[in-house]
Amino acid sequence: MLSVVPTPITVRVPAKVNLHLAVGDARPDGYHDLVTVFQALSLTDDVTVVAAEESGIEVRGEGADLVPTGPENLAWKAVRLLAERAGKDPDEPGVWISINKGIPVAGGMAGGSADAAAALLALNQLWKLEIGRDELGELAGEIGSDVPFSLQGGTALGTGRGERLVPVLARHTFHWVIGLAKDGLSTPEVFGELDRLRTDNGTNRVGEVEPLLEALASGDPRQLALLLGNDLQSAAVSLRPVLRRTLRAGVQAGALAGIVSGSGPTCAFLCTDADSAVRVAAELSGAGVCRTVRVAHGPVPGAKIVSEESAH
Ligand code: C5P
Description:
By secondary structure, the chain is an alpha+beta fold. It is built from 10 helices and 12 strands.
């Protein structure tokens, strides 16, 4: 029986978009070596953890019904991993996790990874473990390739599976329109489709990352727009041909460039400024090719505790 009213801890965590995603060949362990540049965007999830007699996960917000609440939820993996690290029984007392989704589900924006990163940070506080950011980052990498970036945020160069990170200089704010698709895509399926396309007829590969890093440092969205590239885009479009129309519609609406976000099917459109993003979003909504259209900006910070602020 809990004798005191438990204090909940809420963490806000951002979505990501890959500005550059170069995918190497499949490795023996089933993963692909990546060279990628992540940017954290202002679409966020709020994850609240609280000690409870019974453990469980509840999910609210957009696409909540598509999120698993069982052991396959990545936030749950975070609970188990951190409990193991701390030599704690995660069921004594239990942990209740509430997730309020603002990040598209199964959209290639690391929504599940973001929830795992948020759970790690929140439980570190709830259980008073005082594990430092570096070790949390290592634990994050064991949960999934994108989880360390969700923790770190900002703009970063990722290598390995995407989990080895170096911060990238990007002092300027970039403005994005995010086009959500009607259904999600499975990340392993998109990687598999890329392997298949490459075996069958080859596909173009994105170039070196350095010019994009220079464009980020310059802060000029026009320069950046010319250099956005994603090797997974051809695979996502092959599985979901309608994405070609979505990408075209965003550029026709006035965006500088459009790109499939990660493994898709969400599309991200870079705009010249905040006003232009609002105009592009309105026009893209009217084109009827997306389920929902959002405006976002980046870079924003990674997972952070917001218990005292108002959680959404
Ligand atoms: O690391 P994570 O569990 O998020 O990856 C999900 C799936 O995406 C992997 O099982 C793998 O099929 C694919 N993947 C990959 N190469 C990467 C990252 C993910 O093939 N670098």
